[in-house]
## 1
Amino acid sequence: MANLQQSGTAELVSSETAKTRKRTDDYLRRLPWAFLAPALIIYSVVVIYPMSYSAYLSLFRWDGISPTKAFVGLDNYVDLLTQNDVFWIALKNNAVWLVAALLLPTSIGLGLAILLNSKFRGSHIFRSIFYFPAVLSLAVVGLIWTWIYHPDLGLLNQVLGAFGLKALQRNWLSDPQIALYPVIIAATWNSVGLPMLLYLAGLQTIPEELHEAAKVEGAGPIQRFLYVTFPLLRETTLVVLAITAINALKAYDIIYAMTNGGPANRTQLLSTWMYFLTYNYNQVGLGTAIAVILFSLTLIFAIPYIRFMTRKT
Amino acid sequence: MIQSLAKKEYLPRQSKVALFYIALILAGLIWFTPVITLVLTALKDAGDFARNGAFSFPKSIRWENFSEAWETGVKNYFWNSVIVTSVKVPIGIVIESLAAFALTHMHFKWADRVFTYILIGLIVPMQMTLVPLTLLMNALNLIDTLTGLTILYIGFGVPFGVLVMRGFFRTLPVAIVEAARLDGCSWFRIFYRIALPLALPAVVSLCILDGVATWNEFILAQIFLRSDELRTLPLGLVQFSTQFSTQYDQLAAAVLIAVVPIVLVFLVFQRYFVTGMGGAVK
């Protein structure tokens, strides 16, 4: 009897602990979700849900106000590709912008990083000087450069005049043939900082001995760069290229501040044209279709980047 | 660099170093020309600007440019930016750190999938969200409010914040967390008594980077703020420039007022920019 009672109690006790263990297990399994909940909820509501809903809206003809939307399938996309001239200008501008962004800020950033990586008196000051434009908002960068390009009072035309190059003076931001390029230069000024910073961080990880060894072998500075430094910066370069490309496709503020898409829509990007169609012309279907196209272009660069970021280490 | 320059024997070492510095200082000056132009313009009066252009020393310094720009509306823009930034950044960092901690130390089966889901936000062009957000904010009566804008900023800040904090928490030794677990410490206590204090450098970095990004944000403010008195600085400045397009002196002063806080933060916390971006790539 006593035995029975004892074993019964033991059983009871053990089932009790099993139950609490199960309860704590459940609790522990759910706990990470509790930690994640605030971030995940607001992120999903503000970013993911609107993103998916935009893709859905791109299948409708809608002015953004009326209660009914007309389902048109892929017509918005067909319209853009076949009847919307500005869409093609914007797409071409995006391509030019992208190529410039992949070449200019990245190579200037790499050059500066290599130059400023060695410790010499004042190297920190120079790093700050070259990084500084990166902390300014693109709207501010746009405003400052608009003065530089001012046809009469702007620094650029003044300098050209002072050097006797009056023939090269232009009305930089109102000349439809060239207006995009001054804007790209201004954007480059702002976007050199990030690649420089990333390359500086990358250079820190290259052991000095490798350079010494290459030097002993008789490699000159150019060979050392080509065969030692650059190959070891491969990962950094991948990240730099991906981030610059993604940011280039996001460009918007600086266009808005400098040219507002003009003259004659010559400096529209997909991002600004999306804004015009949606908010000025109430063509919500076309606008969201452009957003989807822009996002798909971003994915080309983003997928390798995300793979890299989530790689197993 | 200097050594390698000096190795070649064309010139004596001293003059090579001097050449190196001269080249670098020249490049730095050219690089900084836009900033110098801005400062010079902000300090001179409109007549001086019209006669001599932007890039000349002011005949007399005109401090009134700043007070006039401030009173013409920059005051409002400035305080709106201060409010939005100072509410967004702390709330963002708390929720982002909580999430990053769960993704790194809580043996969470879904960690990789959730992290990938969060990373999508880093690459989404803002345009992809604008229309549905307009509908949503309209429905919630949050259009044209700083509260609404702040909520959007917190949401859009999640991916970068989680990325930076996760990068740091990954370097936090598992042994510390396990030891605290064995001592019966709850996960939440481990988070705010151990992980967060140790992550202080990352938290500061994120504060700076996030603060600057919020201070500079344009497109969401442009879409979701309608009335002039609610505008934040970047939006207000662009508006100011279209309204007072010929008053370059005041506009430059206004821009300078917007830039000064950023410059101060940058000068004081410089090294954190590097740490923060480093964390984002790890």
## 2
Amino acid sequence: VKFSAFSLIINAPDPGTGVVMGQHEKLDSVITLGELVEELGYDAYQIGERHGAPFLCSSPAVLLSAVAMRTSRIRLLTGVTVLTIHDPLRVAEEYALLDHLSGGRLDLVIAKGNHAPHYSTFGLDPAEQWDVLAEKYGLLRRLWSEEGVTWSGKYRLPLEDVTTQPRTYQDKIRIWHGSSTSQQTTELAARNGDPLFSANGFFPSARYQALIDHYRERWVHYGHPGQPTIGVGFPALLIRDTSQEAIQAYRPFWNAQRITPAAKHNGSPFWELEEFIEQGSALIGSPEQVLDKLHRFTEAYRHQLTGVSVDSLPLAWQQEQFERFAVEIAPDLRKQYPNSLWEPST
Amino acid sequence: VVLGAIAARTSRIRLRTGVTVVPNLDPVRVAEDYATVDALSGGRVELTVGKGNFPQPWELFGQDQDEQRDRLVEGVDLLRQIWASKGNVDWDGRFRPPLKDASIGPRPTQPSLPIWWGVSTATWSVEFAAERGLPIVLGGVAQAKEHYGELVDHYRERFAAYGHAASSLQIGTVSHVFVRRDGNQARKEFEAYHHNAMTKTLLATRQGALYTRDYGASLAGPLVVGSPEEVAAKLLDFHARYGHDLQFIHGDIGGQSLEVVAETMELFASEVVPIINQELGQP
């Protein structure tokens, strides 16, 4: 497997001290963490998109362009770009710029998003979001792959003979589809032969497994060759020498997180941290436990990209956890499950 | 996106747009994007807003050109409201969905992120900037000194009439600048770039023919091309009329390599700026 470090740039108060970082300091840490994860040998750095406090990632293209200037190797991913609320033409322009500034290191992950406030802020009807997503995805693909695009659809004014600038740096920017709730996404991804990125968030793993299974099934149905490319997120990482220490250290963050509006909207069935650890994707425990769990997940999902997040932990812990993961966990998994994602084709 | 990248590689310079075409954009997205750059850069962003000067955006974004003024005004007022608000935003208008108790972030790092108002031809536009107390940036590159001079006079008068303190008035202007040690060499070298811009890019895509294609007339008018001494003298002549605080140097009108533009920028910084500062008695 390959590894990505991902963040939704949650600027929440430290549950121990109550202190909230300044926004400049917090956003500056996004860049320094990008530099760190490149040094540590991660394959990718991934920034999500949410609109409204406590998230500071309303402009992932801007943040990733800053990261691009301070890194040279790692892939730059969104996670996810909420395509439903944007004009695909602006998305085509902004991310093509990022593709150039990064020397072709962009992979775009698109989805409908999972944050309630964006419906009202951007005037999107949730009942229409799947149709909106499919239409905007189709237009974005055309704007990147064709010149002189003439197009008409339901959710944007028609275009006549339009060539967006700049053109993409890469021949074809990979577009992943973020998956967490619906077969409409797995269907859209499979139909177009695109990779899938499973949120693998705060629900029992069976739900995400079922969506991944559906995606594989539809991939075969559409006659695509080989195995599809799948990424999987792990939204909580905390390694301590023993599982007791890890659980104890994480509990205040879990208790603060589970009562936030974002968590309520999410509707997670997990209330106790132990439930999240036993039935869900939490990587909270000793190095042996975390490694063992990732082996089980990787055997089950058969994915090529593992994303880990340390969001909501204090900055010093984030740095420490990215490092422990890179040193104590990643090498074994890399060796056991090799793949050619992002490697130059021969 | 571009300024976000530049923010990561610089530490001191102000990061400005010229111009942010607000009528074609969602003001909420503009607020988010530039607040992010402001936070990343430690508070170095300044926005110049305007209706834009090229017709393509209108075709791309499918908006009625007659509405551009209303869209611009509504958009800029919303942008100012978002950045001025301490908490969530309530707003209702014509051109985007209403906002109800909306959380929009991040916050700009500067307590008041400067918004400059781009002015090229219309007096209503000067009037609006004066009413809101916004600093202005003159288009500067297309028309005669007297045209911009009249806009400046009008702006100063209206700015005072609306009761804003003269000390808070700020004016910028833009010039196409090309500097070489030898003034004749500069004028000779620049002619091809000017011809190219007028026939293939600027004029070919513009609707109104604000620019003149005549090179001699342009040199006598808005173009600032010559030796360091000539360039300084011409900018000082503009300054005598506008009394502006900020001069934008547009060194690349298209078709020029990085080296060609960099030579202008280097000569400007090392030789033109000292003459102007000495003349105006500035450090």
